[in-house]
């Protein structure tokens, strides 16, 4: 069954704690933490996302799904380790070499957290195939990272299908997550592509009824 990781990027600060509680009651499977540094992507959310993640750890037992859209990967991994997230995802494009990718995977694993790698819409699957046996998950960006509310890029669904096929053929148990433009109009094509976890932000946060919005997606 498809799981939903709710992006809290657009949550308003004044009502954040209530929103996090309401999301748990509504049945989200993960809280998706979009960490941006203003360098790898334009927006900078480092401070607010850490505050939100910290608040969530105090009020909820639901897993944190941390997505690092940053240049300084190690520093940000270290920052989130004390919060014991379930998953830490870093971007392939932010790494300088394959050796660095492997180093980060092993570092995350060594701290009992599930390692994941993310690729932008233009990045080929060929670039990450060698890492798949070491990974818990691949996050396929279905929009350009860094901005909420974008429309899903259809070509990224073909990439996701290709990834699913490759994982099956090679008996790999790596999960697939997609992020960007996921809503009730696009969720069926996401499901058909074999996705395990779908990140949804504005389609849930802007809904009048979180439970209904999450149930519709599931």
Describe the 3D structure.
- An eight-stranded parallel beta barrel has the order 1-2-3-4-5-6-7-8, surrounded by four helices.
- Helix 1 (16-26) packs across helix 2 and helix 1 packs across helix 8.
- It is α/β, with parallel strands linked by helices.
- Helices cover 37% and strands 20% of the residues.
- The N and C termini lie close together (8 Å).
- It has a single domain, classed as Aldolase class I (TIM Barrel, Alpha-Beta Barrel), CATH 3.20.20.70.
- Helix 5 links the parallel strand 6 (137-141) and strand 7 (175-179).
- The model has no long low-confidence stretch (mean pLDDT 96).
Low-confidence stretches: none
Whole-number tally of structural domains: 1
Highest-level CATH class: Alpha Beta
Determine Rg (CA atoms, Å): 16 Å
Described by the principal axes of the CA atoms, the overall outline is: globular
What is the beta-strand fraction? Answer: 15-25%
Question: What is the element string, with H for helices and E for strands?
Answer: EHEHEHEHEEHEHEHH
Strand order in space, largest sheet? 1-2-3-4-5-6-7-8
Find the CATH topology: TIM Barrel
Residue-averaged pLDDT, rounded? 96
End-to-end C-alpha gap: 8 Å
Helix content: 25-40%
């Amino acid at each position: 069954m498809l799981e939903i990781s709710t992006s809290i990027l657009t949550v308003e600060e004044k009502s954040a704690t209530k929103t996090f509680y309401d999301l748990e009651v509504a049945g989200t499977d993960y809280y998706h933490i979009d960490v941006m540094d203003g360098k790898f992507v334009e927006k900078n959310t480092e401070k607010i996302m850490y505050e939100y993640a910290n608040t969530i750890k105090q009020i909820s037992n639901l897993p944190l799904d941390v997505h690092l859209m940053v240049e300084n990967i190690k520093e940000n991994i270290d920052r989130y380790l004390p919060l014991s997230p379930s998953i830490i995802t870093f971007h392939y494009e932010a790494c300088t070499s394959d050796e660095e990718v492997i180093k980060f995977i092993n570092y995350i694993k060594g701290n009992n957290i599930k390692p994941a790698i993310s690729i932008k819409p233009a990045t080929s699957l060929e670039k990450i195939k060698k890492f798949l046996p070491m990974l818990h998950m691949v996050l396929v960006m279905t929009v350009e990272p860094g901005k909420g509310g974008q429309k899903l890029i259809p070509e990224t669904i073909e990439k996701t299908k290709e990834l699913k096929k490759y994982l099956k053929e090679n008996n790999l148990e790596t999960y697939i997550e997609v992020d960007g433009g996921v809503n009730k109009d696009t969720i069926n094509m996401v499901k058909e592509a074999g996705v395990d976890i779908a990140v949804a932000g504005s389609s849930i946060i802007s809904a009048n009824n979180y439970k209904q919005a999450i149930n519709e997606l599931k």
